[in-house]
Design brief:
The complex is a heterodimer. Chain A is mainly α. Chain A has one domain: ABC transporter involved in vitamin B12 uptake, BtuC. Chain A is 69% helix and 0% strand. Chain A is built from 13 helices and no strands. Chain A is globular and about 65 Å long. By secondary structure, chain B is mostly helical. Chain B has a single domain, classed as ABC transporter involved in vitamin B12 uptake, BtuC. Helices cover 69% and strands 3% of the residues of chain B. Chain B contains 15 helices and two strands. The longest helix of chain B has 28 residues. Chain B starts with a strand and ends in a 6-residue tail after the last strand. The model of chain B has no long low-confidence stretch (mean pLDDT 83). The chains are: A mainly alpha, B mainly alpha. Chain A: It comes from Phaeobacter italicus. Chain A: One of its GO terms (molecular function) is transmembrane transporter activity. Chain A: This is Urea ABC transporter, permease protein UrtB.
């Protein structure tokens, strides 16, 4: 065992990479839940985004195009969920589960010919002086562009929800859809747009795993990250900045346990590998006492009878 | 203009008909999918749904129907109780794994003893293992209000890692030449969940599944607890006023579904699969969710749905070896089934009415 082999600077830098897929997916789901919809299909949309982005990047040679394809694929899958829950009035929990089961199968089917293929690399940005700074450089200025996109997205969603009229309407729909409907807002339409946004974000998050974090394609490679993102929304009490904090916490746990595995700590590998899931549960328990910040209409379907 | 009108009561006719329509719709959509994969759709559908039952080698496949259907039915019956009450245990896969580990572990502790008590002991340990694993989300939910969906699902990943750990360590076959995986229970008579009637596929798991169906039916239709379960799902407020104890209900529903999933795992590992190995579980815990919904959360419906889903597994295997249909295609097929079912449920709860646009 050699703990000194772990480089703290690289650790923090890789922590940010590990956190990004969870963060982007969680921010998307946060918006969906703010509109009063619980979409449990994040895992399915992520894995579909992962393979769609991977396949597109391999075929076109452009990782960026891959991310666009992933966003599209995630959104396309979320349309199914939107149709089921908003138009066909199906149970949201069941529909979300269906989306995950379907997405896992679909991605395995699409990905058959991509196992073992190496995707084109996404280059990290390089700012002449800043990126070369000793400690701060690799941590703050040496990442790929999607990582910064994730942070920008967090800020944008926070600002949108807090300061804009659109954010206010979204929150109103999520808190009390009957009142929002009575005020003349199109509840179903607003929720559908939120679901689409959530799907696109989950897709991007998935593609980040297959294109940058790992980078390769294996069946079921998201391994519960979508579910952790769902837990993260609860953890964050539906606040974007706390989602960022939470994502870095989970990213940190993942990276530290991987580093410990590599360093050959006396704890068996399997127990280290289960730690992110166990910690998710523990954090959920600690934070679930306070439910006051959950959108009041979360998980309830809206049907205008007249 | 087409308008949806909520029915005062769910339509009984549509409630029975939607699973059938959903299966037909899935066959059509699945056929299109298979055609897109370059396979003959008619042949593929026939291979999946007809050949295992009436084809040339049906004598071999028919017993498989029981072998694959039993765990699905057993797990789905447990899940349906919770789903009816709005308690969502989606971690049956983890409870299945833990049941198998505990059951097999309890048996292997007495290897190579030869006692008639070993198998019953394993059954009890299997059920307890699944129960205990399900009690984690149950207790966390009742004590701290933690979301049982997320906790039960997270525990699946924990259980999978634990399975890897025991099959490489604690339960590894000492005479296995270093290969991962436990001793083969099939070659140890005291622990083998053998076929009760040779050549039928009928093992103790099938018996347990049938008993579970009957018990669930009686519970839901003739027992106060079953009434409380239904009441909590359909009218939570009324249930509160009627004095239903939600804590007890959560513990009961999650505990029962966990114990049944654990039993399914034990019967699988001591019978068809034979040993604890890293990948002995094949996702029955997740497929059972589809089975539960396809069976309308009704015990008899679940029995039929379990048979149908077992058919897609067997037929999928045949189509894979004969036609080169990828195994993931069957997974997509099963997922589509749930989609169609949920979408068509609209017709159960709503009436589609044509109305003239109102003059404002």
């Amino acid at each position: 065992m050699d703990l000194s082999a772990i480089n703290p600077v690289l650790l923090v830098a890789s922590l940010m990479v590990a956190a990004t897929p969870i963060l982007i997916a969680a921010i998307g789901e946060l918006v969906v839940e703010k509109s009063g919809v619980l979409n449990l299909g994040v895992e399915g949309m992520m894995i579909t985004g992962a393979i769609a982005g991977f396949a597109t990047a391999v075929e076109t040679g452009s990782p960026l195009l891959g991310f666009f394809a992933a966003a599209f694929a995630g959104a396309a899958l979320s349309v199914l969920f939107g149709f089921l829950t908003q138009i066909a009035q199906a149970n949201q929990v069941a529909s979300g589960l269906a989306l995950t089961l379907f997405g896992l199968g679909l991605s395995a089917l699409m990905g058959q010919s991509y196992v073992g293929v190496k995707p084109p690399q996404m280059s990290d940005i390089h700012i002449p002086v800043l990126s070369d700074l000793p400690v701060v450089g690799p941590i703050l200025f040496g990442h790929d562009i999607i990582l910064y996109f994730g942070i920008a997205l967090t800020a944008a969603v926070w600002a949108l929800l807090k300061f804009s009229r659109a954010g206010l309407v979204l929150r109103a729909v999520g808190e009390n859809h009957d009142a929002a409907h009575a005020l003349g807002y199109k509840v179903i339409r607003i929720r559908l747009m939120a679901i689409l946004f959530g799907g696109a974000c989950a897709g991007i998050g998935g593609a980040y795993i297959s294109l940058i974090r790992v980078p390769q394609w294996t069946e079921g490679m998201t391994a519960g990250v979508g579910w952790i993102a769902l837990a993260l929304v609860v953890f964050a009490s539906w606040k974007p900045w706390r989602a960022l904090l939470g994502a870095y916490l989970f990213g940190g746990v993942t990276v530290v346990q991987l580093n410990l595995q590599a360093a050959g700590v006396a704890i068996p590998v399997e127990y280290l590998a289960m730690s992110p899931y166990v910690i998710t549960i523990i954090v959920l328990v600690i934070l679930s006492a306070d439910k006051s910040s959950a959108p009041a209409a979360l998980g309830r379907n809206f049907h205008a009878s007249r | 203009m087409i308008r949806l009108e909520k029915r005062p009561q769910p339509s009984r006719v549509w409630s029975m008909a939607t699973p059938l329509v959903a299966v037909l719709a899935t066959m059509i959509a699945g056929g299109l999918l298979f055609a897109a994969l370059g396979k003959n759709p008619v042949e593929a559908i026939r291979t999946i749904f007809w050949d295992p039952l009436f084809g040339e080698f049906a004598f071999y496949y028919r017993p498989q129907l029981l072998v694959k259907g039993a765990p699905l039915v057993l797990i789905a019956i447990g899940l349906s109780l919770g789903f009816r009450a709005g308690i969502w245990n989606i971690g049956a896969e983890g409870q299945y794994i833990m049941g198998a580990i505990c059951g097999a572990g309890a048996g292997l502790a007495f290897y190579p003893a030869d006692s008639a008590l070993i198998f019953p002991l394993m059954v009890v340990a299997g059920a307890l293992g699944g129960w205990a694993w399900a009690m984690i989300p149950a207790v966390l939910k009742t004590r701290f209000g933690t979301n049982e969906i997320l906790v039960s699902l997270m525990l699946v990943y924990v259980a999978e890692q634990f399975l890897a750990s025991v099959s490489l360590g604690l339960l590894k076959n000492p005479e296995g030449f270093g290969f991962p995986g436990s001793r083969n229970l099939q070659s140890w008579d005291a622990a083998h969940n053998a076929e009760l009637i040779t050549g039928t596929g009928m093992h103790w798991g099938v018996v347990a599944a049938l008993i579970a169906v009957i018990f669930a039916y009686v519970l839901l239709n003739r027992h106060m607890l079953g009434y409380h379960i239904r009441l909590s799902g359909e009218a939570p407020r009324a249930a509160r006023f009627a004095g239903v104890n939600p804590t007890r209900l959560v513990l009961f529903c999650l505990g029962t579904s966990g114990a049944l999933a654990g039993l399914a795992g034990l019967f699988e590992v001591s019978g068809p699969s034979g040993q604890i190995s890293i990948d002995f579980n094949v996702g029955y815990g997740f497929t059972a969710i589809i089975v539960a919904f396809l069976g309308r959360l009704h015990p008899v419906g679940i029995l039929l749905a379990g048979g149908l889903m077992a058919l897609t597994y067997i037929g999928g295997d045949i189509a894979q070896s004969n036609m080169g249909l990828p195994s993931a295609a069957i997974q997509v097929f099963q997922g589509m089934l749930l989609f169609f079912l949920l979408a068509l449920d609209l017709l159960t709860n709503f009436r589609i009415a044509l109305s003239k646009p109102e003059v404002v």
